[in-house]
Amino acid sequence: MGISDSALREIVLLKKLRHENIVELKEVAVSRDPQGMFLVMEYCEQDLAKLLDEMVHPFTEPQVKCLMQQLFRALDYMHSHYVLHRDLKVSNLLLTSHGILKVADFGLARVFGDPDMSMTPRVVFESASPVAVDLLNALFTYDPKRRISAAAALAHPFFTERPLPCDPVLIPSLPPSHSKKRKREESLQI
């Protein structure tokens, strides 16, 4: 069975990425059990998802600016080292007792620009409504101005304590060439 691809990927990337706003991998411990591998990370008191759930009042604007600045610094560092996280969400953002934000969980991360590392168009997100894979693949043909970045989506709950509302305009639809109506019309013309 061995080590999973996501665990191996996370180990390799965390050994490569050294930044104040990225969780530090201290060591890898392996037990006698083939399934027993443990990643020992630096200690962070909580993740932002738990903090947001327990907060009585939303973050102040200066607090949001501080957190977002730390997130952008981590993203800038990752991207300058050709790493895409691909699973940014508040539960993967940790916070130390000193208010330092740490990006964690690199199991879905990928190196980009490397021809040996194939990229998949898979999108991972937390949502109450499932989206078909063909609709997700269709996202790549849409106007980028209609997309929302992961960092922008993360800023919303900092201000409101609620997830970003689902705007129907942001839900992808199939391009005309994929619609059933068009296929039906084409089959009738033959």
From TrEMBL:
InterPro entries recorded: CDK (IPR050108), Kinase-like_dom_sf (IPR011009), Prot_kinase_dom (IPR000719), Ser/Thr_kinase_AS (IPR008271)
Pfam families per the UniProt record, alphabetical: Pkinase
Biological classification of the source: Eukaryota, Metazoa, Ecdysozoa, Nematoda, Chromadorea
Family of this protein: Belongs to the protein kinase superfamily. CMGC Ser/Thr protein kinase family. CDC2/CDKX subfamily.
Domain Protein kinase: 1-190
Gene3D superfamilies found in the cross-reference section: Phosphorylase Kinase, domain 1 (3.30.200.20), Transferase(Phosphotransferase) domain 1 (1.10.510.10)
MF terms (GO), sorted A to Z: ATP binding; protein serine/threonine kinase activity
Species of provenance: Teladorsagia circumcincta
Protein name in the entry: Protein kinase domain-containing protein
Chain coiled-coil ranges: none
GO annotation, cellular component aspect: nucleus
Domain of life: Eukaryota
Keywords on record: ATP-binding, Kinase, Nucleotide-binding, Serine/threonine-protein kinase, Transferase
